[in-house]
Write a structure and sequence with these properties.
The complex is a heterodimer of chains A (367) and B (604). Chain A is an alpha/beta fold and 367 residues long. Helices cover 34% and strands 16% of the residues of chain A. Chain A contains ten helices and twelve strands. In chain A, the strands form three sheets. A seven-stranded mixed beta sheet of chain A has the order 3-2-1-4-8-9-12. In chain A, strand 10 and strand 11 form a beta hairpin. In chain A, helix 2 runs parallel beside helix 5. In chain B, 56% of the residues lie in helices and 12% in strands. Chain B is built from 20 helices and ten strands. Chain B has a ten-stranded mixed beta sheet, with helices on both faces. In chain B, strand 7, helix 7 and strand 8 form a beta-alpha-beta unit. In chain B, helix 11 packs antiparallel against helix 13 and helix 18 crosses helix 19. In chain B, 42% of the residues are buried. The chains are: A alpha/beta (367), B alpha/beta (604). Chains A and B meet through loops of A and helix 9 of B.
Chain lengths: 367, 604
């Protein structure tokens, strides 16, 4: 009898321990998995993505700058950022230019392989609206109240923003529209304003102009990463001369950037270190540069899709979750107040008593 | 005290100036000439540097296929031209309309001041035909012009055929951002002048023309084509226009770049580009090219149909196809491709061509420095007080007396010289009828010989001037006159050089030494001879011979003299027909100036 009870007791203890450990282990596992997914989800700290893509030059022979911007636009859209979150500024209209032998197209590869204009391009700032003032207003958010939403950068402190600039530049400035310039100091100050107003979480700045590296020299706000197509004193060169159209179709750096981005899909795990390797000197002739000292995270842990795409974390599960069981909930506490009719009747009673007491003659004073 | 207000210093400066007068003059002159020759070291070589961003490189794909059809059209044109005995207007209108252009015609007529013996015309009447290819999508604000002249006889048929072939090809393209005007002008320059005046609503030369019914936008660039053979070996680019104007060199560089791309030989001034300007032969070659260009510019004639566009700030050049004895021949399809490429590039132009000012001013200032130095020297001499007389006349009266006398003695030669100039300008044309009645010469010869006669008559003036003036000229008188003349020359040559540098340079080269050395005290016969040699008329005579030498077609004296006479008649005609400024400049300004120096030489 003692043996049977001890046996029972042992079995009971064993079962208890086993179930307990199993339970804890399972919950620990669950907790651990939860933590991993959540960690991944919150590792970058951003919840939405924005892109500001600017082409600053006009005239037909600057076709390649418009093609540059449209290529980045195309990649960014393909990777998930919607038009409502893209501010596209093109200083000139190449697709409908009278000199374009293939109207309504902008090609990025010679022999007309890839038309980056497509049929769903939404240009937010076009032609002469692309000015330094408008660009800075978009960045800092100081737009007149009548500005439509499509022309605003409505980012918050959890937005990752991609800013891409292309055109003609020099040491410390970028030329807008043949008539004005933006300096690197102004740009750095604009980014500081954005930081003060908590308008971004992290910002990636890419510039494809001559001497582009001079534009990010003056940055001083945190969480900025910058890439440029050439160093100070170097020219960024054009690529893809097309004889049928008669102009250069792309710049070298953006051409190779586009090639690199074509291989990225929303689930890619490629990180920024790969982006820094795009277009080495042998292909680009100029030396691309980058700056990461203001960025808090390690570039190796930053995914391309953190900036170029708008990725929602989706976890696929094979479990079935039963949603038909009623979930017992406590009834919601509702504030109680007496019914309306009661209040009305109460006040009528009070008035009647008042007039009964003091006589009807006072009625005419009221009405 | 300042440098110029301190009397001691001033005196020192002045004495320095008077001592070094002649050496400074000589040095300035030599430096000016040397600098000019140094220009030939890297002369008007066509480089591949483009200053206009929109022109870029020759990155277009030329696909013009229809060279043979162009030649057939040319032959048709030639047949119809023979039948019509001039411009086959109806056939041209029909053909251009068949190619989808908007066709218009313009009638013009002009009576020349005297018959033109080179081209054998006197009363000119003609029609221009032009077709406008409208840009498919662009607003009609800008235009390009392609023109081919319709010349009598067998020349330029291929040019018109190619023009029509290109018109058909261009019509099928959609990338034109400017209207293209295809113009066939009759009587070459006269027709072109009528068309341009009609297009721009100006009337500077008194020609009669019917207003243009159709118009494109403002013209950005123009090319004139001359092609008289089915195959060519090289293309010659002609840049010099009216009054020595040149188009923007980007146009020339573009043409050269396309020639290199397509593989056609390109010449300028009829000479090939050479790269060995270090060697002696290379240097002399480039000097020859430069001298040719200078002479052509100085003459002020338009050397191609394009020459008249430059006045309206339209960059234009003439392209001549040359068939010589080289082995490698180029066919019309290739020429068509070259023109297609050029027009494609001109299509990309977004702004008008910039104005390129080459600074030859330094050379001219060096040459003119010595005139200024002379003037200063004279002023100094005049400023020294005259020796007192021993009479009791007060200084004031004497000063006033000499002052008035001085002014009169200067004013008279001035007025008479200019009147002679006016005579030289007006008399030849006015009295040609009378001359023809009196002497057995044709009208052209009458005009030219009257001009030479008036010129030579001016040489006899000093004797007559002095007979008019009572009393004798003083020692001071000729100094004042020389001061005035020297300053006048400096200003005149400076202004001329601004408009037409080559003309200013050649005149400066010959007239400045005259200004320097002439005084009444040099040996009369020798200096009179030198003065005549260096006068504008003789300079022209020598230039004619020199020009023929440079073109490797030397002439004998007889032929040279006849050529000289025809040059004078052409110069006068150019002035009346197209507004060339060389003839009035020489007759009304340079010749009187030279006469002043002649007066000084014979001052008594």
């Amino acid at each position: 009898m003692i043996l049977s009870t001890t046996l029972e007791f042992c079995i009971f203890i064993y079962l208890l321990i086993f179930s307990f450990s199993y339970f804890t282990l399972h919950s620990c596992c669950l907790l651990y998995l939860c933590f991993d997914n959540a960690g991944q989800f919150f590792s970058s700290g951003h919840t939405n993505n924005w892109a500001v893509l600017v082409c600053t030059s006009r005239f037909w022979f600057n076709y390649r700058h418009v093609a540059n911007t449209l290529s980045v636009y195309r990649s960014v859209k393909r990777l998930g950022i919607p038009d409502s979150h893209i501010v596209l500024m093109l200083a000139d209209d190449m697709a409908c230019n009278h000199r374009n032998p293939k109207p309504a197209t902008v090609f990025s590869h010679k022999n007309m392989e890839l038309n980056v204009y497509g049929d769903d391009v939404e240009v937010d700032y076009r032609g002469y609206e692309v000015t330094v003032e408008n660009f800075l207003r978009v960045l800092t958010g100081r737009l007149p109240p009548s500005t439509p939403r499509s022309k605003r950068l409505l980012s918050d402190d959890r937005s990752n923003i991609l800013i891409y600039l292309t055109g003609h530049g020099g040491n410390g400035f970028l030329k807008f529209q043949d008539s004005e310039e933006i300096s690197n100091v102004e740009l750095a100050d604009a980014f500081e304003q954005m930081w003060q107003k908590r308008r971004y979480n992290e910002l990636l700045f890419i510039i494809d102009t001559c001497q582009g590296a001079s534009m990010y020299e003056r940055f001083y706000s945190p969480n900025l990463m910058a890439l440029a197509s050439s160093q100070v004193g170097e020219d960024s060169l054009s690529h893809q001369p097309d004889l049928a159209i008669g102009v250069h179709l792309m710049d070298r750096y953006t051409f190779y950037l586009l090639e690199f981005l074509e291989d990225i899909h929303p689930a890619s795990k490629t990180n920024m270190n790969d982006l820094f390797k795009v277009c080495p000197k042998s292909q680009c002739v100029s030396t691309p540069g980058h700056r990461t000292d203001l960025f808090l995270r390690d570039p190796g842990s930053v995914l391309i899709t953190d900036f170029f795409g708008s990725v929602r974390k989706v976890e696929i599960t094979m479990e079935t979750i039963n949603l038909t069981d009623p979930i017992k909930q406590k009834p919601k506490q509702k504030d109680w107040h007496p019914p309306d009719g009661f209040i009305l009747g109460l006040w009528t009673l009070i008035l009647l008593v008042f007039f009964k007491l003091y006589g009807m003659k006072h009625l005419k004073h009221i009405f | 005290m300042g440098l110029l207000s301190d009397p001691n210093r001033r005196r020192a400066l002045i004495s320095l100036l008077t001592r070094l007068n002649s050496p400074i003059c000589v040095v300035c002159y030599m430096a000016g000439v040397a600098w000019f020759m140094g220009l030939a070291f890297e002369p008007f070589t066509l480089r591949t540097y483009m200053s206009e961003n929109a022109m870029g490189s020759t990155m277009v794909e030329e696909r013009f296929p229809a060279g043979e059809r162009a030649l057939t059209t040319g032959r048709e044109f030639s047949a119809h031209k023979k039948k019509a005995g001039g411009m086959p207007v109806d056939w041209l209108v029909k053909t251009m309309q068949a190619r989808g252009l908007e066709v218009f015609t313009q009638r013009f007529s002009r009576k020349l001041p005297f018959p033109d013996e080179n081209k054998e015309r006197y009363m000119v009447k003609g029609t221009n035909v032009y077709g406008i290819l409208r840009a498919p999508r662009a607003p009609r604000t800008e235009a390009l012009v392609l023109s081919a002249p319709c010349t009598p006889g067998d020349s330029n048929n291929q040019a018109v055929g190619l023009l029509l072939g290109l018109a058909q090809y261009f019509r099928n393209q959609i990338y034109w951002a400017k209207d293209i005007i295809f113009l066939v002008n009759e009587h070459d320059l006269i027709g072109m002048q009528a068309w341009l005046e009609g297009y721009h609503h100006t009337n500077t030369t008194g020609m009669d023309w019917s207003p243009l019914q159709g118009r494109g936008g403002s013209i950005q660039a123009a090319l004139s084509l001359e092609l008289s053979s089915d195959v060519i070996t090289s293309m010659d680019l002609v840049l010099e226009g009216l009054n020595g104007q040149l188009p923007n060199l980007d146009l020339a560089n573009l043409f050269y770049a396309f020639c290199q791309k397509i593989g056609v030989l390109c010449t300028i001034q009829g000479k090939l580009q050479r790269n060995d300007w270090d060697s002696v032969s290379g240097y002399s070659h480039s000097v020859q090219t430069m001298m040719l260009m200078v002479m052509k510019q100085a003459s002020g004639r338009p050397w191609g149909d394009h020459g008249l566009f430059l006045r309206y700030h339209i960059e234009a050049a003439s392209i001549k196809g040359i068939n010589s004895f080289r082995q490698y021949k180029t066919d019309v399809t290739t020429i068509g491709r070259l023109l297609e490429g050029m027009y494609r590039k001109l299509n990309n132009l977004l702004e008008p061509f910039g104005l390129l000012l080459t600074d030859y001013m330094l050379i001219l200032t060096l040459l003119l420095h010595l005139t200024v130095v002379q003037a200063l020297d004279l002023w100094v001499q005049l400023a020294t007080p005259p020796p007192r007389t021993e009479d009791g006349i007060t200084d004031k009266e004497q000063v006033r007396h000499t002052y008035y006398f001085r002014v009169l003695s200067v004013l008279t030669p001035l007025v008479i010289s200019h009147l002679t100039g006016v005579a030289l300008y007006t008399l030849p044309i006015q009295f040609q009828e009378m001359a023809v009645e009196q002497f057995p010469v044709s009208e052209t010869e009458a005009v030219v010989l009257t001009a030479i006669g008036v010129y030579t008559a001016g040489l006899a003036l000093p004797h007559n001037t002095h007979r008019l003036l009572s009393g004798e000229g003083t020692e001071q008188g000729w100094r004042v006159l020389k001061l005035v003349a020297v300053l006048y020359l400096a200003v005149l040559l400076g202004c001329t050089a601004l408009i037409n540098f080559s003309l200013g340079f050649i005149l400066a080269l010959t007239l400045v030494p005259v200004a320097a050395f002439v005084t009444p005290h040099v040996p009369k016969v020798l200096s009179a001879f030198i003065l005549v040699i260096l006068s504008p008329a003789c300079t022209l005579l020598f230039s004619v011979f020199f020009f023929q030498e440079l073109q490797e077609l030397p002439v004998s004296f007889q032929e040279g003299w006849l050529l000289y006479l025809s040059v004078i008649s052409q110069g006068i005609l150019d002035h009346f027909l197209y507004g060339s400024l060389v003839y009035p400049l020489i007759a009304l300004l340079v010749y009187p100036c030279w006469l002043l120096f002649w007066n000084i030489l014979f001052w008594k």
